[in-house]
Every structure is written in structure tokens, then in C-alpha cells.
Amino acid sequence: MSPVSVPPPQCLKKRMVVPHRYMFGPGPSNVPRRILEAGAKPVIGHMHPEIFEIMSDIKSGIQYLFQTQNRTTFAVSGTGHTAMECAIFNTVESGETVLVAVNGIWGERAADVGERVGAKVKTIVAPPGGYLTNAEIEKALSEHRPVLFFLAHGESSTGVLHPLDGIGDLCHKYNCLFLVDSVASIGGTPLCMDQQGLELIMSSIKSKRSLPMIVYAGIDILYTGSQKVLNAPPGTAPISFSERACQKVFSRTTKPVSFFLDLSWLSNYWGCDDKPARIYHHTAPVTALYSLRESLAVLADEGLEKSWDRHQKVAEYFHAGLESLGLKLFVKEKHARLPTVTTIVAPHGYDWKEITAYIMKTHSLEISGGLGPSVGLVLRVGLMGCNSSRVNVDMVLAALKDALKHCHRSK
């Protein structure tokens, strides 16, 4: 008798078919051919010198994207969730207090992660579609005295772009690290992690260019994901730690709860420490690194300022088009609207699930419903990176108009 009792699955004998779709949900985005081709290059060893060179390029690209000079800058092998855990696992020890701003699902997730490491998690909650004031944040910092404050800059579940002015200074006033989730925002809206942002502003003033709403954020830990504005496949997550954050991490009395996300190992593997040799930690997804490197090169070719400007103008064009269809925007204040992910009030009388399903079936175009606190309240449309264009806006508006005409409307 054969020792193999489970036969080869018939489904694997068929050729795999992946349809082309317009990925206009909150992520992932469509991947340009240039980035796809980069990811198809030959696999080589994750400890080969050529990979280390690619990793060095990625570090430089992330420093440009984040506008930071932090030495401890790299990409986690995993999605934005992995970067969130990397930040919290390394900076927080059991029994310490963490303050989380909950202005959508990502604050909820950060609070969950904090609880899992044994932290005393305190939250301040903004209403769906709203944001917290600095006075509210300072009151909570003063009351709870946390070691870490988490905030989602671009909250993709509600479409809110949370103001950052002055929050970093408040955190440092209370000896607290400032952790920012920029998965849905970085590259599509002005954000400068540290002092280098001021230099960018000064150079813009000298050249008589206008860059509104750029602030020195004073962020201690910043992370994002590869699949949004960067237009790379999901699976890598850029992250950066300030010197203040590193001092907290490397002076802890206990090991981080995760070996895989231990910053001492990761900083060595990415060449961020002063050690003469890199030690094997894990097998990095080398083809994903090719794609990430190329996506950062695409952004560098366009330039951050042009990318910020393009996303803002396309978002405003989209918002005007939605209003012309009689649709309402979920985020009332214009300055708090995330330019990369737009939330639309779910049309009255319609089933939002029917709308998204109709658009997918009829137009091969993905938009999505709400997530977390916005479930049932909104439709979400993401126009990020190469997808942020007037041509794509017109495509989405036509699909929505068609859906409103053909989907069932309750009386």
C-alpha cells in the first residue's frame, strides 16, 4: 500500500487565473508593471551582499518617505499590523501604561495589542468621522502618564486625517513616546517625522513653492505598509525609531515578547547598529524587498511634494464629483479629510453591500464598506499612489452613478 493516503488535489492541476481588477478600496492598491517586474527578479540568498545593498537602498528610501534621519529605519517582514506589534512589543513592558487615541479601528487594534503584552491600556475616543483636540490629548497624558501614546494619522476606517500639530511636543513634555500609524496617509499627504521636515519647509520658502500643512511632527516611532500609496504588494512594512525610542527599547529590563520582532535583532539584520557583521535572524521575503525598493524608487522619481499635491487635488476633484451625484462625505471638516481614502455616507435606502457587489460584478472595480466603528455607515474609496488620478475618479463616479440607478432602493 502507498503511504500517501491523501491524493493530489485536482484544483492544483488547473492553471491559476487571477482577474484584473481596479483596486479602489482602502488597500491594497494596483501594482504598476515596473514594480511587478522588480518582484519577479531571481531569488538570491537573504544574507547575500546584493541583498544587503538592496536593504540599504530601502532604508534610504524610507528615510526620504518619512523625512527622517533616524539610523534605526528599516522594513518589517509583514504587513502594517506587524509594524504596529513591532513598535508596541519593543517599547512597552508588562505593567507600563499605554495611551491610545481611538478614532477608528486602528486605535482599537493598538489597544488590543497593548493589552496582550500586559500593559495598562487607557483610551481616549473620538466620534466616528471626528478627531481629538490637543487639549483632550494633554489632559489624558497628564492624568495617565503613559510611556507610549498611539495615534493613527490616516484612519482608513473613517477617512479622517488626524491633525498632528503640537502632539509630539506634548508627548515629550510628559516623557512619553509618540507612536504614529501612517499606513493610509504617508506619501499621499504632508508628513515629516523629525527635524528634517523644517529643512524641507525652509527650502520650499526659498524656492517660493507652497506646501500647506507641513509640520515638524516630533514622532518617535512611525510606520506604514507597502500596499497603499507605495503601490507595492502587501507584505513589507517600513518603520523608523528615534533615538529616544531606541533608548527606551534598549534599556528595558525584560525581553520583548516576540523574538521575530525583537528590535535588537532586526536593527542588526538591517545594518542599523555599529556591529561589524550581520547575524542571521530570519529569512526575509527577498522578492518583496525587490518590490518595496522599486516602489520607493518610483516615489523618489516623482518627488514627495508632487505626490502630496497630486493626491490632494485628485481628492478635491473626487469630493466635488460625489457631491454632484447627491452623495455626502462622512468627514465634515475639509482639513480633516484623508486625501487617500474617502468615506462616503452610505446612500439612504440602499444596501451598501449590494452597491459594492454590483460595482465589482459590473465594473470589475473594488470599493468597500465601513470597517470597525464605520460598519454600515459608509462606503470607502481608496485612490492611492498610481491610482490617484482624475481618470480613475471619473471611473469611480460613473460606477457609483450606475449602481445608484440599478441597485434596489427601499421606499
TrEMBL record:
Keywords: Aminotransferase, Pyridoxal phosphate, Transferase. SUPFAM superfamilies: PLP-dependent transferases (SSF53383). InterPro entries: Aminotrans_V_dom (IPR000192), Aminotrans_V_PyrdxlP_BS (IPR020578), PyrdxlP-dep_Trfase (IPR015424), PyrdxlP-dep_Trfase_major (IPR015421), PyrdxlP-dep_Trfase_small (IPR015422), SP_NH2Trfase/AEP_transaminase (IPR024169). Its EC number is 2.6.1.44, 2.6.1.51. Residues 22-204, 217-371 form the Aminotransferase class V domain. Its cofactor is pyridoxal 5'-phosphate. GO terms for cellular component: peroxisome. Substrate binds at residue 380. Pfam families: Aminotran_5. The modification N6-(pyridoxal phosphate)lysine is found at residue 228. Signal peptide: none annotated. GO terms for biological process: glycine biosynthetic process, by transamination of glyoxylate. GO terms for molecular function: alanine-glyoxylate transaminase activity; L-serine-pyruvate transaminase activity. It catalyses: L-serine + pyruvate = 3-hydroxypyruvate + L-alanine; glyoxylate + L-alanine = glycine + pyruvate. Belongs to the class-V pyridoxal-phosphate-dependent aminotransferase family. This is Alanine--glyoxylate aminotransferase. The lineage of its organism: Eukaryota, Metazoa, Chordata, Craniata, Vertebrata.
